[in-house]
Specification:
5-stranded mixed sheet; alpha+beta; 4-stranded antiparallel sheet
């Protein structure tokens, strides 16, 4: 067997091994898209007593309504490969479906990560329940859209539909109110916290939490200090007939009750600091999370352009 034959055989073996190995590695290198969505439901106008029955009317586009609710949805590709609009199953389109008997008053896009994703909405009346279809050209990781639906229902609509090769899952406790969107647009954590701390409700909650804890800590520390203070000094242990004995006795009387209480003197401050830290942790744990700032791409871009125009 010649040297060229050996090289040909080796090349064939490498090809037979390399092609499937490359395919396997390529498959492993891909990550299944993870499409996430969040829902924020609020009733804006409720029926009040019997006023509606007695003749009070609410209208919207010449339609009589009895209730106005607002539901905001955030939909985005949290991680993984790009999701394409063609991946939406035609027989089960990606949509926001209202509950039975509910009616859509308005549907609009509040914000999207960028114009290039081609996000668009459509009203779908072909089903038993009214729905808003969601379409897009593609969603790279971090791309998404915020949608607002004004309707008459007492419950939040639901996201339905199938996207090939992607997982669609709801993310709990996401705040989509206008104030939350404003905070999400501030990328600096410090500036975001300062913005939140300026809120009057935040200050009231902070005072309501810190004041009782700090006061209770001060009372406890002061009580412990008083328990250890004021003990009598036995003069028999000192030679009061000498200057040295009198000086030692005077020092003992002066220091009685405050010896070994340096730590307690600073305990009130320590308890106050712990109260502040506890308040911050509670505030962070109790508040809803913010959406990724990438979903506010268009809004942030418009804000930057406005700042440039104002500076010019």
């Amino acid at each position: 067997m010649s040297f060229s034959d050996i090289l040909a055989i080796l090349g064939l073996v490498v090809s037979l091994i390399g092609i499937p190995l490359t395919f396997i590695l390529a498959r492993r290198g891909r990550q299944k898209p993870d499409v996430a969505y969040a829902v924020d439901f609020t009733v804006l106008i409720r029926p009040f007593g019997d006023l509606l029955d007695r003749g009070l009317k609410l209208t919207f586009d010449d339609r009589d309504i009895r209730r106005v609710s607002r539901t905001r949805f955030a939909v985005w590709n949290r991680r993984g490969d790009t999701v394409r609009g063609s991946d939406i199953v035609e027989s089960d389109p990606f949509r926001i479906e209202l509950t039975e008997g509910d009616e859509i008053l308005q549907a609009r896009i509040v914000s999207r990560s960028r114009k290039q994703i081609g996000a668009e909405l459509g009203l779908d009346y072909s089903r038993e329940k009214e729905a808003v279809s969601i379409g897009f050209d593609f969603l790279d990781p971090g791309d998404g859209v915020i949608i607002e639906i004004v309707h008459q229902g007492t419950q939040a609509p639901k996201v339905a539909g199938t996207i090939r090769g992607a997982t669609v899952a709801k993310v709990q406790d996401i705040d989509l109110t206008p104030k939350a969107l404003e905070l999400a647009g501030i990328r600096s954590p410090m500036r975001r916290f300062i913005k939140k701390a300026r809120n009057r409700r935040f200050a009231v909650r902070a005072f309501a939490m810190i004041a009782p804890i700090g006061s209770a800590g001060y009372i406890i520390v002061d009580y412990i200090r008083r328990l250890g203070a004021g003990h009598l000094v036995d003069p028999k242990q000192y030679n009061l007939n000498s200057l040295e004995g009198q000086a030692a006795f005077a020092i003992e009387v002066r220091d009685t009750g405050i010896r070994n209480y340096g730590l307690l003197e600073n305990a009130s401050l320590g308890i106050l600091v712990l109260a502040v830290a506890f308040m911050f942790i509670t505030e962070i744990a109790s508040r809803k999370r913010l959406i990724p700032s990438t979903l506010l791409g268009e809004i942030l871009e418009e804000r930057r352009e406005a700042e440039v125009d104002d500076a010019a």
